[in-house]
Specification:
The protein is α+β, with helices and mostly antiparallel strands and 133 residues long. The protein has an 8-stranded mixed β-sheet. A hairpin with an 8-residue loop joins strand 7 and strand 8. The structure holds zinc ion. Zinc ion binds next to strand 1 and strand 5. The site of zinc ion has 6 residues, from strand 1 and strand 5.
Length: 133
Amino acid sequence: MDKIEHIGIAVKDLEVSNRIFEKLFGVPPYKQEVVLTEGVRTSFFESGPNKIELLEATTEDSPIAKFLEKRGEGIHHIAFAVEDIRSEMERLKNEGFVLLSEEPKSGADNKWVAFLHPKSTNGVLIELCQDKE
Ligand code: ZN
């Protein structure tokens, strides 16, 4: 695994949170994107080497809606950049981590993504992401 690629934050209202993070970083989001298959609308902010992804639910049964219900707004996941997502998924599976999908999925910001179940990582949802070529 390489560096932290971004930190994902679950928010109730993306427009409200966009304004907060725009003030915090002094720049608007560089990208906004809907990932229909995941039921999320996202904004990405960049500040120096750091990236923050804000996530809003687009449907009531979206994983983000469930997260907000259970835990409220806040840090949702930590994403690590990987060079080869399939081999990293295989390695982590062999180490006993629980993956949320067998195959990488197409995620936001032009990435292949996969998640580790928070039950196997001390309550923290971990995302692996690989740049799409
Ligand atoms: Zn993410």
